[in-house]
Each structure stands twice: as C-alpha cells, then as structure tokens.
Amino acid sequence: VVEKETRIAVTIFHRTANGEFQRRQIKDVEILALNPFFDLALLRIPQQKDFAFRTVYLAENDQQREGEEVFAIGNPLGLERSVSRGIVSTRNRNMQGIVYIQTTTQINPGNSGGPLFNSRGEVIGVTNMKLILGEGLGFAIPITYVKHFLDNRDAFAFDKTSPNTGYRYFDAPRRKTAVSEK
User: Fold this and answer.
1) Across the 182 residues of the chain, what is the mean pLDDT of every consecutive 10-residue run?
2) Whole-number pLDDT of residue 131
3) Which one of 78, 100, 124, 182 is CB 3.0 to 4.6 Å from 139, fit for a cystine?
4) Helical segments of the chain, H only
5) Residue of 67, 38, 68 lying closest to 143 (CA atoms)
6) CA triplet 138, 95, 129: central angle to 5 degrees?
7) Which residues contact 96 (CB under 8 A, 6 or more apart)?
8) Three-state SS for 68?
C-alpha cells in the first residue's frame, strides 16, 4: 500500500482485466488509474475490519547495483504471503522499448503486481513477469516508472465508460507561421 490513509496501492495493469480487480479476500477494490504501456494500475482498497494496512517505502531512485540482494513478496501459485530472494541481474534490461529490472528472484503467477524490495526494505520495483523457458529470469517495473505514474495519476484516470481509459490525448501544438520582417 502506497498511501496508508487513502488505502491507495499500485499493482500491474494486466491484473485489472475488463476494468475489474479480483481478489479472494478483498472485494470492491476501486480502479483509480491505468497505464497499459507500463503495465501499471492504481487501486483504492476498501477499509478492512480484520486487516491493518502497512505503508511501504519507495526507494528514492533506481540506483540499486547489479548483484544487490532483492526480495519479492506475493502469492505465487496461490501460496499466500510468500517471500523469495534473489539479486539484481541488471537494472537496465530493455524489452520492447521499456526498461526493466532483471532479477534472479523467483517470479511466478501470483507474484506479479507485488513489490520488489531492496535489502533496506524499500520498494525498488513492481514485479510483473518472468521468462517461461528459463530459470531465474524475473522482471520488475523500476520505481522511477512507478513514481512517474503516481505523480501523473490524473493523466491516467480510469473511467469505465471510456474506450480510451488510461490515455489522455492533447491537441498537437499549432505551427507558428513565418513572419517576414521588412
């Protein structure tokens, strides 16, 4: 959870298929913003009677080093509250024009959308995928993308009635006409 008082959390876009977010234990989660390009979603979680939310701390920047120990927390294959450990293999893995943190941390279905922590307990990324035909090839969306998404959440505001949800289009800048001075 990013903001404790408002119960706003960041996860991945592909977990919000069809404009809904489903969890077995938490219902009526509100989708606030979506960024399909970076695979990010911003959610508001309703207050829970039997669950206290904890705030996570976001790393200041993407300055983790290759070889640095990292941890993922999630529900891989439905196994709740599981922690896996690995290292940062590279912090600049470019795949289809997007830079990811590559990690040896086990990322399985159920981990995606969860935090990737450094050894100081700061979130350095949001886990989102792994390469199926390899071992120890997990990927996370870097914290700089997450912070940009949070800072510009209004530009990605979710509207279930809009076919362009998560996108805001602006008019192209007008061309300046050349004026000759005589």
Assistant:
1) 70 63 65 89 83 82 91 84 92 91 90 92 92 86 94 85 58 60 54
2) 85
3) 100
4) 143-151
5) 38
6) 30
7) none
8) coil
Rg of the chain over CA atoms, in angstroms? 19
Task: Decide if 182 is inside a domain.
Answer: no
Range of the domain at 102: 8-156
How many whole angstroms separate alpha carbon 72 and alpha carbon 138? 10
104 found inside a domain: yes
Locate 97 and state its tokens: 């024009």
The two tokens of residue 127 are: 């886990």
As annotated, the active-site residues are: 14, 39, 112
- Supply the pLDDT for residue 121: 93
Inside any domain, residue 97: yes
Cβ-contact 19, 158 below 8 angstroms: yes
Q: What is the rounded (10 degree) CA torsion for 118, 123, 124, 125?
A: 130
Running DSSP on this structure, what letter comes out for residue 108? -
36 lies in some domain = yes
Number of domains in the chain: 1
**Residue 92 three-state SS:** strand
Tokens 């922690």 appear where?
A: 83
The CATH number that applies at residue 87 is 2.40.10.120
Cβ neighbours of 41 (radius 10 Å): 27
Closest residue by Cα to residue 43 from 74, 75, 12, 78: 12
